[in-house]
Automatic annotation (TrEMBL), chains A, B:
Region of interest: Disordered: 232-252
DNA-binding region per UniProt: 65-84
PROSITE patterns named among the record's database cross-references: HTH_TETR_1, HTH_TETR_2
InterPro entries: DNA-bd_HTH_TetR-type_CS (IPR023772), Homeodomain-like_sf (IPR009057), HTH-type_TetR-like_transc_reg (IPR050109), HTH_TetR (IPR001647), KstR2_TetR_C (IPR041490), Tet_transcr_reg_TetR-rel_C_sf (IPR036271)
One Pfam family named in its UniProt record: TetR_N
Residue ranges the record marks as coiled coil: none
Protein name: HTH tetR-type domain-containing protein
Domain HTH tetR-type per the UniProt entry, residue ranges: 42-102
Sorted UniProt keywords: DNA-binding, Transcription, Transcription regulation
Length: 252, 252
DNA sequence: GTCTATACCGGGATAGAC
DNA sequence: GTCTATCCCGGTATAGAC
């Protein structure tokens, strides 16, 4: 991801365009892709993956047949098999790429940010949302298709999940230690932030229909989270005061 | 759901046991189920659905074959078809039951609660979590399997989603009007609460592994949400003060 | 009411021509 | 490197015995 650019490589003005990402995938799978010329391989891989992401978003990956995929990508059945040895490998290519990208991007805050927990938290929220926006079909695919598949696929997705959750937990921990955050249970709070970020790409259609912009959403989540956890100087500690009596609603 | 109990009907101490729910499903599908005796029909339906929920949670619904389902439920291939006319109907049975139950339960707050927004919000959160806990496999199924299936199935799930979101929006609206909540954007806030509740059943395995109890989670979400939106008497309005400068992190 | 046996189709994967 | 033709399995659904 954040590797040094090779001499002669294209400047890649769009690091999250499908073609650019497929170039990186190719590097990781030189062995399973039998096509030698790099530029034709990336081009075709891009068409395949663009197609599989599109079809899967409607029908799911398993329900997407290789025949459909061949038609949609413009290749033939046999042609597909020079890019992966079986359907499951195609799944893994996408999942690992998503996981790697997320870890590389979120693990590299700009200089100075990581030292200030409040700023770091804010950066994590905004960067996460913008990354998943730029690679929306990829993240939706990873989220939706990870379950119910062979163990290795599951693990990749789950690990990625937990990795980013740990980043949040780390920031919250440091912020709480410095006294800028007031948090009772760091791990629980970290796991509550995660779904707020995932909602943006998982339910993208809903937000699009409502006309919610990403700027609005970033601001909304940031305010929501900060209101919940920022330490407030002149106020009683959370979880103690001014609550009206519990109303234990047993399920009827 | 909240119908009057028929004379002679069992007292049903467990309204969310699989058998009890399948009794209700049977009422709604007397036409497609060809087995006449009610008690044998509900018993078998329960075994079928218990099996399909279990298998689908691992492999997904589409990947679960009717052969597997027959083995797991103890019925034969042919036997299954006296309970539904095709696989898709089985899917719809489950989805509609989940949607109906959620709406019936969440739409009936105990007397006095609906009048006080703070109490109502708290009741909604706790009831939602406890309901989805009691029917966890059902809700996971509905959440996971709704996408990628024929339009009618999609609609049922989406409608259910929006219905509960509207309940939250309504409460927040009233609370804001009364001045007990300080909320900039009611609709956005309502849609942020939803994923916090869904996370409990979608990622149930994670929380189980960590030893997070439902009481802990209820308290955690309640505190988180209330800290975020409860109006604070002696404090500047949200979204204005004491934030360190924005740190607009463009995706690198 | 439930089972066994079977029809039939669409899926993934491969062989070999071009 | 890519395509066409084909194999074979496993899926849904049904027919007819018990």
């Amino acid at each position: 991801m954040t590797r040094a650019r090779q001499a002669g490589e294209a400047p890649a003005p769009e690091p999250y365009a499908t073609e650019a990402i497929c170039g990186r995938i190719l590097e990781r799978h030189r062995d399973t892709v039998s096509v030698r010329k790099a530029h034709v391989a990336t081009a075709n891989l891009a068409r395949i993956i663009e197609a599989v992401l599109r079809l899967s978003s409607r029908q799911g990956f398993h329900e997407t047949s290789l025949r459909d995929l061949a038609k949609a990508s413009g290749l033939s059945m046999g042609g597909l098999y020079s890019y992966f040895d079986n359907k499951n490998t195609l799944l893994l290519m996408i999942l690992t790429e998503v996981a790697q990208t997320a870890e590389a991007v979120l693990g590299n805050p700009p200089p100075g940010v990581a030292e200030r927990p409040a700023a770091h938290l804010r950066w994590l929220i905004e960067t996460h949302l913008r990354l998943t926006e730029a690679m929306q079909p990829w993240f939706v695919f990873a989220y939706m298709e990870a379950k119910g598949f062979p163990a290795p696929a599951r693990r990749i997705a789950t690990e990625g999940e937990l990795a980013t959750e740990r980043m949040f937990a780390g920031v919250l921990e440091r912020g709480a230690a410095e006294g800028v955050f007031a948090i009772e249970d760091v791990d629980l709070t970290a796991s509550l932030i995660k779904p707020l970020l995932q909602d943006w790409y998982v339910k993208r259609a809903k937000y699009r229909k409502r006309g919610t912009t990403i700027e609005r959403y970033v601001a909304g989540v940031t305010d929501f989270v900060e209101s919940a956890i920022l330490a407030r100087p002149a106020q009683s500690p959370p979880g103690s005061a001014d609550r009206d009596g519990r109303n234990p609603a047993a399920v009827p």
